[in-house]
Amino acid sequence: MRSFLPLVILGFTTLAAAQTKSAQAPAYAGVQGEYLARNFHFGSGETLPELKLRYLTLGAPHRNAAGHVDNAVLLLHGTGGDEHSLFNPVFSTVLFGPGQPLDITKYYLIFPDDIGHGTSSKPSDGLHMHFPHYDYDDMIRSQHEMLLDGLHVDHLRLILGTSMGCMQSFVWGETYSDFMDALMPLACNAVPLAGRNRMTRYMAIENIEHDPNWKNGEYTSEPTEGLRDANEMLLIMGSAPLQMQKLYPTRESAEEYVDKYLDRTVASTDANNLIYYVNASRNYDPSKNLAKIKVPVMWINSADDFINPPELGIAQKQVHEMPHAQFVLLPITDATRGHGTHTVASIWKDYLVQLLAESEPKP
Protein backbone atom coordinates (compact mmCIF):
# COMPACT_ATOMS: atom_id res chain seq x y z
CA MET A 1 0.00 0.00 0.00
CA ARG A 2 1.17 3.53 -0.77
CA SER A 3 -0.31 6.48 1.03
CA PHE A 4 -0.10 10.12 0.05
CA LEU A 5 -0.98 11.82 3.32
CA PRO A 6 0.94 14.04 5.71
CA LEU A 7 1.27 12.08 8.93
CA VAL A 8 4.23 9.73 9.04
CA ILE A 9 4.72 7.56 12.09
CA LEU A 10 8.35 6.85 12.95
CA GLY A 11 8.86 7.76 9.34
CA PHE A 12 6.54 4.90 8.37
CA THR A 13 4.82 6.24 5.28
CA THR A 14 2.55 3.19 5.32
CA LEU A 15 1.02 4.54 8.51
CA ALA A 16 -0.37 7.78 7.13
CA ALA A 17 -3.98 9.05 7.29
CA ALA A 18 -4.56 10.69 10.63
CA GLN A 19 -4.18 14.22 9.36
CA THR A 20 -6.60 14.35 6.45
CA LYS A 21 -9.80 12.66 5.42
CA SER A 22 -9.00 11.69 1.85
CA ALA A 23 -5.98 10.72 -0.20
CA GLN A 24 -4.85 12.54 -3.30
CA ALA A 25 -3.26 11.08 -6.40
CA PRO A 26 0.47 11.76 -6.71
CA ALA A 27 1.25 14.73 -8.93
CA TYR A 28 4.46 13.24 -10.34
CA ALA A 29 5.26 9.75 -11.62
CA GLY A 30 9.04 9.69 -12.02
CA VAL A 31 11.29 7.47 -14.10
CA GLN A 32 12.08 4.15 -12.43
CA GLY A 33 15.50 2.51 -12.45
CA GLU A 34 17.38 -0.34 -10.82
CA TYR A 35 20.99 -0.82 -9.78
CA LEU A 36 22.56 -4.15 -8.81
CA ALA A 37 25.40 -3.90 -6.31
CA ARG A 38 27.53 -7.02 -6.77
CA ASN A 39 28.95 -8.81 -3.73
CA PHE A 40 27.80 -6.10 -1.38
CA HIS A 41 29.51 -6.33 2.01
CA PHE A 42 27.53 -5.29 5.07
CA GLY A 43 28.99 -3.88 8.27
CA SER A 44 27.82 -7.04 10.06
CA GLY A 45 30.27 -9.09 7.98
CA GLU A 46 27.48 -10.59 5.86
CA THR A 47 27.45 -10.41 2.07
CA LEU A 48 24.84 -10.52 -0.67
CA PRO A 49 25.93 -11.65 -4.15
CA GLU A 50 23.46 -9.13 -5.58
CA LEU A 51 21.86 -6.23 -3.73
CA LYS A 52 18.98 -4.78 -5.75
CA LEU A 53 18.45 -1.05 -5.32
CA ARG A 54 15.45 0.58 -6.94
CA TYR A 55 14.99 4.31 -7.43
CA LEU A 56 12.94 6.98 -9.16
CA THR A 57 14.20 10.16 -10.79
CA LEU A 58 12.66 13.44 -11.91
CA GLY A 59 14.40 15.91 -14.19
CA ALA A 60 17.74 15.38 -15.90
CA PRO A 61 21.38 15.62 -14.79
CA HIS A 62 23.40 18.66 -15.82
CA ARG A 63 27.19 18.68 -16.04
CA ASN A 64 29.37 21.71 -15.54
CA ALA A 65 32.37 22.68 -17.64
CA ALA A 66 34.53 20.20 -15.76
CA GLY A 67 32.09 17.38 -16.51
CA HIS A 68 30.73 17.01 -12.98
CA VAL A 69 27.01 16.75 -12.20
CA ASP A 70 25.98 19.99 -10.48
CA ASN A 71 22.19 19.74 -10.06
CA ALA A 72 21.48 16.38 -8.40
CA VAL A 73 19.36 16.26 -5.24
CA LEU A 74 19.05 13.09 -3.14
CA LEU A 75 15.72 12.82 -1.31
CA LEU A 76 15.64 10.22 1.46
CA HIS A 77 12.46 8.63 2.82
CA GLY A 78 11.60 7.54 6.35
CA THR A 79 11.51 4.14 8.03
CA GLY A 80 9.10 1.82 6.24
CA GLY A 81 8.69 4.24 3.34
CA ASP A 82 9.79 3.89 -0.26
CA GLU A 83 10.75 5.81 -3.39
CA HIS A 84 7.20 7.21 -3.67
CA SER A 85 6.97 8.62 -0.14
CA LEU A 86 8.06 12.12 -1.09
CA PHE A 87 5.80 12.17 -4.12
CA ASN A 88 3.07 12.96 -1.59
CA PRO A 89 1.33 16.07 -3.01
CA VAL A 90 1.85 18.06 0.21
CA PHE A 91 5.55 17.69 -0.55
CA SER A 92 5.87 17.38 -4.32
CA THR A 93 3.37 19.98 -5.51
CA VAL A 94 4.96 22.56 -3.22
CA LEU A 95 8.55 21.89 -4.30
CA PHE A 96 8.87 20.36 -7.76
CA GLY A 97 6.96 22.67 -10.09
CA PRO A 98 8.16 25.59 -12.27
CA GLY A 99 9.79 28.28 -10.15
CA GLN A 100 9.54 26.18 -6.98
CA PRO A 101 12.59 25.38 -4.81
CA LEU A 102 13.30 21.98 -6.40
CA ASP A 103 12.00 22.80 -9.88
CA ILE A 104 12.52 19.64 -11.95
CA THR A 105 13.45 21.69 -15.01
CA LYS A 106 16.46 22.86 -12.99
CA TYR A 107 17.25 19.97 -10.64
CA TYR A 108 17.78 16.23 -11.07
CA LEU A 109 15.85 14.63 -8.19
CA ILE A 110 16.74 11.11 -7.04
CA PHE A 111 14.45 9.04 -4.78
CA PRO A 112 15.93 5.69 -3.67
CA ASP A 113 14.19 2.67 -2.19
CA ASP A 114 16.51 1.99 0.72
CA ILE A 115 17.78 -1.49 1.55
CA GLY A 116 14.88 -3.40 3.10
CA HIS A 117 12.27 -1.04 1.65
CA GLY A 118 9.96 -0.81 -1.33
CA THR A 119 11.14 -3.02 -4.17
CA SER A 120 14.81 -3.01 -3.19
CA SER A 121 16.27 -6.20 -1.67
CA LYS A 122 14.59 -7.06 1.64
CA PRO A 123 13.94 -10.00 3.99
CA SER A 124 10.54 -10.84 2.48
CA ASP A 125 12.18 -11.59 -0.88
CA GLY A 126 12.98 -15.05 0.53
CA LEU A 127 15.86 -14.92 3.00
CA HIS A 128 13.56 -13.89 5.86
CA MET A 129 15.59 -13.54 9.08
CA HIS A 130 18.71 -14.76 7.24
CA PHE A 131 18.82 -11.49 5.29
CA PRO A 132 21.92 -9.45 6.22
CA HIS A 133 21.31 -7.28 9.27
CA TYR A 134 21.75 -3.91 7.60
CA ASP A 135 22.14 -0.56 9.33
CA TYR A 136 22.24 3.09 8.29
CA ASP A 137 25.93 2.88 7.37
CA ASP A 138 25.09 0.12 4.88
CA MET A 139 22.27 2.22 3.46
CA ILE A 140 24.55 5.22 2.88
CA ARG A 141 27.31 3.12 1.30
CA SER A 142 24.80 1.48 -1.04
CA GLN A 143 23.32 4.86 -1.98
CA HIS A 144 26.81 6.21 -2.70
CA GLU A 145 27.64 3.22 -4.90
CA MET A 146 24.32 3.50 -6.73
CA LEU A 147 24.90 7.19 -7.42
CA LEU A 148 28.46 6.74 -8.67
CA ASP A 149 28.24 3.48 -10.59
CA GLY A 150 24.55 3.34 -11.47
CA LEU A 151 23.57 6.95 -12.17
CA HIS A 152 27.09 8.35 -12.74
CA VAL A 153 26.38 11.16 -10.31
CA ASP A 154 29.64 12.27 -8.70
CA HIS A 155 28.30 15.18 -6.66
CA LEU A 156 25.06 16.25 -4.99
CA ARG A 157 23.72 19.77 -4.84
CA LEU A 158 21.65 18.82 -1.80
CA ILE A 159 20.66 15.92 0.43
CA LEU A 160 17.20 16.30 2.00
CA GLY A 161 16.06 13.57 4.35
CA THR A 162 12.93 12.97 6.41
CA SER A 163 12.91 10.98 9.69
CA MET A 164 15.20 8.01 8.93
CA GLY A 165 16.39 10.01 5.94
CA CYS A 166 17.08 12.88 8.33
CA MET A 167 19.37 10.64 10.36
CA GLN A 168 21.00 9.35 7.19
CA SER A 169 21.75 12.95 6.19
CA PHE A 170 24.10 13.31 9.15
CA VAL A 171 25.82 10.01 8.32
CA TRP A 172 26.22 11.17 4.72
CA GLY A 173 27.73 14.47 5.83
CA GLU A 174 30.31 12.74 8.02
CA THR A 175 31.15 9.85 5.70
CA TYR A 176 31.32 11.66 2.36
CA SER A 177 31.84 15.24 3.48
CA ASP A 178 32.84 16.57 0.05
CA PHE A 179 30.09 14.82 -1.92
CA MET A 180 27.33 17.41 -1.38
CA ASP A 181 26.88 21.18 -1.17
CA ALA A 182 24.25 21.21 1.58
CA LEU A 183 22.19 19.07 3.96
CA MET A 184 18.58 19.49 5.07
CA PRO A 185 17.70 17.00 7.84
CA LEU A 186 14.01 17.05 8.80
CA ALA A 187 12.61 15.45 11.99
CA CYS A 188 15.40 13.69 13.86
CA ASN A 189 18.19 14.05 16.36
CA ALA A 190 21.88 13.26 15.93
CA VAL A 191 22.39 11.00 18.94
CA PRO A 192 21.99 7.25 19.53
CA LEU A 193 18.35 6.19 19.72
CA ALA A 194 17.82 5.60 23.42
CA GLY A 195 15.13 6.48 25.94
CA ARG A 196 11.56 6.40 24.68
CA ASN A 197 12.57 6.32 21.03
CA ARG A 198 14.50 3.07 21.36
CA MET A 199 11.97 1.63 23.80
CA THR A 200 9.25 2.06 21.21
CA ARG A 201 11.24 0.37 18.48
CA TYR A 202 12.27 -2.44 20.83
CA MET A 203 8.68 -3.04 21.91
CA ALA A 204 7.50 -3.11 18.28
CA ILE A 205 10.05 -5.82 17.53
CA GLU A 206 9.27 -7.74 20.71
CA ASN A 207 5.54 -7.72 19.98
CA ILE A 208 6.16 -9.49 16.69
CA GLU A 209 8.77 -11.92 17.94
CA HIS A 210 6.55 -12.99 20.86
CA ASP A 211 3.67 -13.83 18.56
CA PRO A 212 3.62 -17.67 18.31
CA ASN A 213 2.85 -17.38 14.61
CA TRP A 214 6.10 -15.55 13.90
CA LYS A 215 8.03 -18.86 14.10
CA ASN A 216 11.47 -17.22 14.11
CA GLY A 217 10.60 -15.50 10.86
CA GLU A 218 9.58 -18.64 8.98
CA TYR A 219 5.85 -17.99 9.10
CA THR A 220 3.54 -19.06 6.30
CA SER A 221 1.01 -16.37 7.19
CA GLU A 222 1.74 -13.05 8.87
CA PRO A 223 1.80 -12.94 12.71
CA THR A 224 -1.13 -10.53 12.73
CA GLU A 225 -1.48 -10.12 16.50
CA GLY A 226 2.16 -9.12 16.84
CA LEU A 227 1.86 -6.76 13.89
CA ARG A 228 -1.29 -5.25 15.33
CA ASP A 229 0.36 -4.62 18.69
CA ALA A 230 3.43 -3.08 17.04
CA ASN A 231 1.36 -0.78 14.86
CA GLU A 232 -0.83 0.36 17.76
CA MET A 233 2.21 1.71 19.54
CA LEU A 234 3.71 3.29 16.45
CA LEU A 235 0.44 5.06 15.76
CA ILE A 236 0.63 6.88 19.07
CA MET A 237 4.34 7.69 18.67
CA GLY A 238 3.77 9.42 15.36
CA SER A 239 0.57 11.22 16.27
CA ALA A 240 0.02 14.96 16.63
CA PRO A 241 -2.35 15.58 19.58
CA LEU A 242 -3.85 18.81 18.23
CA GLN A 243 -4.73 17.28 14.87
CA MET A 244 -5.97 14.02 16.35
CA GLN A 245 -8.31 15.91 18.67
CA LYS A 246 -9.64 18.04 15.81
CA LEU A 247 -10.13 15.22 13.34
CA TYR A 248 -11.48 12.61 15.78
CA PRO A 249 -13.32 14.58 18.50
CA THR A 250 -15.63 11.76 19.62
CA ARG A 251 -15.09 8.28 21.03
CA GLU A 252 -16.78 6.77 17.99
CA SER A 253 -14.67 8.63 15.42
CA ALA A 254 -11.43 7.92 17.31
CA GLU A 255 -12.14 4.21 17.60
CA GLU A 256 -13.27 3.97 13.99
CA TYR A 257 -10.02 5.56 12.84
CA VAL A 258 -7.94 3.12 14.90
CA ASP A 259 -9.82 0.10 13.56
CA LYS A 260 -9.43 1.18 9.94
CA TYR A 261 -5.81 2.16 10.44
CA LEU A 262 -4.89 -1.18 11.98
CA ASP A 263 -6.74 -3.18 9.35
CA ARG A 264 -4.89 -1.29 6.64
CA THR A 265 -1.41 -1.36 8.13
CA VAL A 266 -1.47 -4.97 9.30
CA ALA A 267 -2.60 -6.08 5.84
CA SER A 268 0.20 -4.15 4.11
CA THR A 269 3.18 -4.86 6.41
CA ASP A 270 5.56 -7.82 6.38
CA ALA A 271 6.68 -8.70 9.91
CA ASN A 272 10.30 -9.55 9.09
CA ASN A 273 10.70 -6.41 7.00
CA LEU A 274 9.36 -4.34 9.90
CA ILE A 275 11.76 -5.93 12.38
CA TYR A 276 14.69 -5.16 10.11
CA TYR A 277 13.88 -1.58 9.24
CA VAL A 278 12.90 -0.61 12.77
CA ASN A 279 16.15 -2.12 14.06
CA ALA A 280 18.40 -0.57 11.39
CA SER A 281 18.89 2.43 13.69
CA ARG A 282 20.33 0.28 16.50
CA ASN A 283 23.91 1.59 16.18
CA TYR A 284 23.19 5.04 14.75
CA ASP A 285 25.44 7.65 16.39
CA PRO A 286 26.74 10.61 14.39
CA SER A 287 27.30 12.65 17.56
CA LYS A 288 31.06 12.10 17.76
CA ASN A 289 31.81 13.35 14.25
CA LEU A 290 29.47 16.26 13.63
CA ALA A 291 32.43 18.63 13.27
CA LYS A 292 33.34 16.77 10.06
CA ILE A 293 30.21 18.21 8.42
CA LYS A 294 31.53 21.35 6.76
CA VAL A 295 28.69 22.14 4.35
CA PRO A 296 25.71 24.35 5.25
CA VAL A 297 23.06 22.46 7.24
CA MET A 298 19.43 23.46 7.75
CA TRP A 299 18.14 21.19 10.53
CA ILE A 300 14.41 21.40 11.22
CA ASN A 301 12.25 19.73 13.88
CA SER A 302 8.68 20.43 14.93
CA ALA A 303 7.69 21.20 18.52
CA ASP A 304 4.83 18.67 18.40
CA ASP A 305 7.09 15.78 17.32
CA PHE A 306 6.49 13.07 19.92
CA ILE A 307 9.45 11.06 18.59
CA ASN A 308 11.92 13.95 18.84
CA PRO A 309 10.48 16.07 21.68
CA PRO A 310 12.03 19.56 21.91
CA GLU A 311 12.32 19.43 25.71
CA LEU A 312 15.28 17.07 25.32
CA GLY A 313 17.27 20.06 24.05
CA ILE A 314 19.53 17.82 21.95
CA ALA A 315 19.49 19.62 18.61
CA GLN A 316 19.77 23.04 20.22
CA LYS A 317 23.17 22.01 21.64
CA GLN A 318 24.49 19.88 18.80
CA VAL A 319 23.90 22.43 16.06
CA HIS A 320 26.88 24.40 17.37
CA GLU A 321 29.21 21.46 16.70
CA MET A 322 28.86 21.97 12.95
CA PRO A 323 30.53 25.09 11.56
CA HIS A 324 27.78 26.08 9.13
CA ALA A 325 24.58 24.72 10.67
CA GLN A 326 21.28 26.29 11.67
CA PHE A 327 18.60 24.61 13.78
CA VAL A 328 14.94 25.60 13.46
CA LEU A 329 12.27 24.42 15.89
CA LEU A 330 8.89 24.94 14.26
CA PRO A 331 6.24 26.01 16.80
CA ILE A 332 3.01 24.04 17.11
CA THR A 333 0.37 25.57 14.86
CA ASP A 334 -2.75 24.45 13.07
CA ALA A 335 -0.48 23.60 10.13
CA THR A 336 2.02 21.32 11.88
CA ARG A 337 1.50 17.56 11.86
CA GLY A 338 3.75 16.22 14.60
CA HIS A 339 6.53 14.02 13.28
CA GLY A 340 4.86 14.16 9.86
CA THR A 341 5.54 17.89 9.57
CA HIS A 342 8.66 16.84 7.67
CA THR A 343 6.47 16.07 4.66
CA VAL A 344 4.33 19.24 4.77
CA ALA A 345 6.70 21.35 2.72
CA SER A 346 4.68 24.57 2.78
CA ILE A 347 5.61 25.02 6.45
CA TRP A 348 9.39 24.96 5.96
CA LYS A 349 9.82 25.73 2.24
CA ASP A 350 11.32 29.18 2.87
CA TYR A 351 14.13 27.59 4.90
CA LEU A 352 14.95 25.36 1.95
CA VAL A 353 15.12 28.42 -0.31
CA GLN A 354 17.47 30.06 2.19
CA LEU A 355 19.70 26.96 2.34
CA LEU A 356 19.96 26.69 -1.44
CA ALA A 357 20.93 30.36 -1.69
CA GLU A 358 23.53 30.11 1.09
CA SER A 359 25.10 26.97 -0.39
CA GLU A 360 25.18 28.07 -4.02
CA PRO A 361 28.60 27.06 -5.36
CA LYS A 362 30.81 29.96 -6.35
CA PRO A 363 31.63 30.15 -10.07
Task: Furnish the topology, listing elements before pairings.
Elements: E1 31-41, E2 47-58, E3 72-76, H1 89-95, E4 108-112, H2 136-150, E5 158-162, H3 164-175, E6 183-186, H4 195-209, H5 224-237, H6 241-247, H7 251-268, H8 271-279, E7 297-302, H9 314-318, E8 325-330, H10 345-358
Helix pairs in contact: 2-3, 4-5, 4-8, 5-7
In short:
This protein is an alpha/beta fold and 363 residues long. The protein has helices at residues 89-95, 136-150, 164-175, 195-209, 224-237, 241-247, 251-268, 271-279, 314-318, 345-358; strands at residues 31-41, 47-58, 72-76, 108-112, 158-162, 183-186, 297-302, 325-330. Helix 4 (195-209) runs antiparallel to helix 8 and helix 5 packs across helix 7.
